[in-house]
Amino acid sequence: MKTLILAALLCALLAQTSAQPFSFDCRDVWRPSKNRCFIFVPKAMTWTDAQKNCLRQGGWLTSVRDAEEYAVIQKVITDAKGTGLIWLGGHDITQEGKWRWTDGTPFTYANWRPGQPDNWQGNEDCLHLNAEGRWFWNDLDCETPLPSVCAKNL
């Protein structure tokens, strides 16, 4: 009788476990933070190609929601030995001066370098960070090949 009860409990437990919906966790080199994962992509690509690369991995070029999250993104970059200019998911391609994130979240946090964005020569529509010094943001020509940071939701 004990064996029968144990078998029934085991079957119920297995059924409950297998009925759980699949949830993504941050595997391999993705870094978790709150409800998202981040990865530094060292290969230099145009902003558009970097976004396509992130989409292939199930994410997008990262947005930055607040200072705490930006600190996590900085750590992802430094842990991967990233330096220099790096693409993030901000752009004003559709309307000059109206910055948007590729994931559709509101643009509520910014860390622009003083005097930026400036749309220098009328051709700077994509957001990059400078992974040196104070980690300020700047706008840049989207065709410039740079490394990038991707994000995806958990």
UniProtKB/TrEMBL annotation:
<feature type="signal peptide">
    <location>
        <begin position="1"/>
        <end position="19"/>
    </location>
</feature>
<protein>
    <submittedName>
        <fullName>Ladderlectin-like</fullName>
    </submittedName>
</protein>
<feature type="domain" description="C-type lectin">
    <location>
        <begin position="33"/>
        <end position="151"/>
    </location>
</feature>
<dbReference type="InterPro" id="IPR016186">
    <property type="entry name" value="C-type_lectin-like/link_sf"/>
</dbReference>
<keyword id="KW-0732">Signal</keyword>
<dbReference type="InterPro" id="IPR018378">
    <property type="entry name" value="C-type_lectin_CS"/>
</dbReference>
<keyword id="KW-1015">Disulfide bond</keyword>
<dbReference type="InterPro" id="IPR001304">
    <property type="entry name" value="C-type_lectin-like"/>
</dbReference>
<dbReference type="InterPro" id="IPR050111">
    <property type="entry name" value="C-type_lectin/snaclec_domain"/>
</dbReference>
<dbReference type="InterPro" id="IPR016187">
    <property type="entry name" value="CTDL_fold"/>
</dbReference>
<dbReference type="Pfam" id="PF00059">
    <property type="entry name" value="Lectin_C"/>
</dbReference>
